[in-house]
Amino acid sequence: QVQLVESGGGLVQPGGSLRLSCAASGSIGSLNIMGWYRQAPGKQRELVATVTSSGTTNVADSVKGRFTISRNNAKNTVYLQMNSLKPEETAVYYCNFNQLFPRRFETWGQGTQVTVSS
Question: What would the mean pLDDT of 54-80 be, rounded to a whole number?
């Protein structure tokens, strides 16, 4: 199995920046997708951004141009740089690990709170 440890959440003013990190450990296969999802109170969990083990990214339209996802495969870590944050982006941000090969499974992190408020 794979364990995920998230860090970097917190309180930030509107227009500010935060950087989230998620480190994976355990039996990590060669083909996988790591990413970030978020869930605001009373809303469904939604995709923020993902990046494959080969570096292909998928970013939600709502955050394009403001959020950047990246990963360091040597450290099995994914990062989410969030700029120009908005109050409506206050949510719990969850790291996701989706392994595709050699064995398929999916793991979620415990979540980190991001609060955008003045």
Answer: 97
